[in-house]
Write a structure and sequence with these properties.
This protein is mainly alpha-helical and 124 residues long. Helix content is 50%, strand content 8%. The longest helix has 22 residues.
Length: 124
């Protein structure tokens, strides 16, 4: 079971209040631009094969909901304080540790391809 389902309050604390604290501190410190890494999880279960950023958000988990609220805080800081934010939405992020976790329900397609190439494909 994903952590955000087990502990939605912790998810909110980290994603919403953590982002708000960083926005406030960055604004106070005179940071020129804030980069908030968004998540494709806000789109929920895909109804189409390809999703782009114009698709409406349909979060289905506390994690996805908290990421969407945090993005709205970024927008509010721009509108109210002129504080510039950049909010990229990443799909299928991977790295060294992600390659080894192909059994996770959140494993990326890259992990699967790595497994097939490195370990061989067995259809048994």
């Amino acid at each position: 079971m994903p952590l955000s389902i087990k502990n939605p309050a912790l998810t909110n604390e980290v994603n919403i209040f953590g982002t708000l604290n960083l926005l406030e501190a960055s604004l106070k410190a005179g940071v020129k631009r804030f980069v908030y890494v968004f998540s494709c999880a806000v789109y929920g279960a895909a109804s189409e094969l390809l999703i782009n950023e114009s698709a409406p958000p349909r979060p289905i988990s506390p994690y996805a909901s908290s990421k969407l609220v945090a993005e709205e805080y970024c927008k509010a800081f721009y509108k109210n304080y002129g504080f510039k934010t950049v909010r990229p939405r990443y799909f299928n992020v991977y790295g060294a540790l992600r390659l080894l976790r192909f059994s996770s329900p959140f494993a990326s397609p890259i992990s699967y391809f790595y497994r097939v190439i490195k370990l061989g494909f067995n259809q048994s």
